[in-house]
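FORM 7B: Structural annotation worksheet

SECTION A. Query
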Amino acid sequence: MLSVTISAIKTQENPMVTIKDIAKKADLSPATISRVLNGDTSLAVSQETRDRILSLAQDLGYTKHLKKQAAQAKATLGIIQWYSESEELDDLYYYSIRISIEQRAMDLGYQLVRSFNDLDHPLLEGVDAIIAIGKFSQTQMENLASFHTKLVFVDSDTLNEGFSCVTTDFNRSVIRVIDHFLSTGISDIGLIAGEEETADRETPLIDPRFRTFKQYMTDLKLYQAKSVYIGPFTSQSGYELMKAAITDLKDQLPHAFFVANDTLAVGALRALQEAQIPVPNRVQLISFNDTSITKQVYPSLSSITVFTEEMGSQAVDLIDQMLQKPSNFHPRMIKLGTELTIRESSF
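SECTION B. Predicted structure
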């Protein structure tokens, strides 16, 4: 079992810390800090800024906003992340989903219990509803349902198992990438896909992006199995997979690659740069998720933008509906569309 942390979204209180102290650290006005900590959603600041303010408040031991939220709380929501805390830090996608869930839940007045990769912790028995982020086996889903039937999964299609879920439209997203490459005159398109398994390591998972890529490219009579490389969703894996492609394919290296997430793409970009293969002039790259890392590398990465903030908000709203009108609620799936954001790694 990976290391686990359960917390009730609280911190060690420091009564000496004020709004002004947080404002000074954040280099923002006290008014902005106050509005964010009080859950003012009308304030025009980015989610990244909100997250930074909340993190600073926790680090400095400021707790007044948490006490207010607890006093107003109407129910307790359990948030289960399929990753450990350390794994989440390496994957901004799942971190962003969790933060957006927590923000929306606090805006609606819920108390929160957070769990990292531990479905059996006794604190979960006292919650009124659960949001589970990531990939879970059938056994794990049944285990979670035994805690509470008010249950929503995020980033996993669980409707066939009878559970509500919020997912991304992987199918149309992949087709959009392929169509974009084709529109620029590129038909030799490679794929670097990820492989993963459920949180309990029981069930291997086939990347849905690979399924769609293979089917659509086959329909177009363009699929080349030799141009597909699959490995773990890590930057090192992306580096090694692209390095293998460069070695294996030589002059037949595709002129474009779709990469299944930003972390893989960062590694793939490094391998191309080490081999002195120009991006995008020789090889174009488009990744998936569009986390902040896509703008921190050079060239910046084109990516499918996934609206993680909306995913989190929709999940909490589903839970809210379940709690408000339990007799009229039936399992449902919310599938959110994406956008293709073009940057320097592709034309």
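SECTION C. Observations
The CA atoms of residues 119 and 144 lie 7 Å apart. The longest helix spans residues 308-324.

SECTION D. Sign-off
Analyst initials: ____
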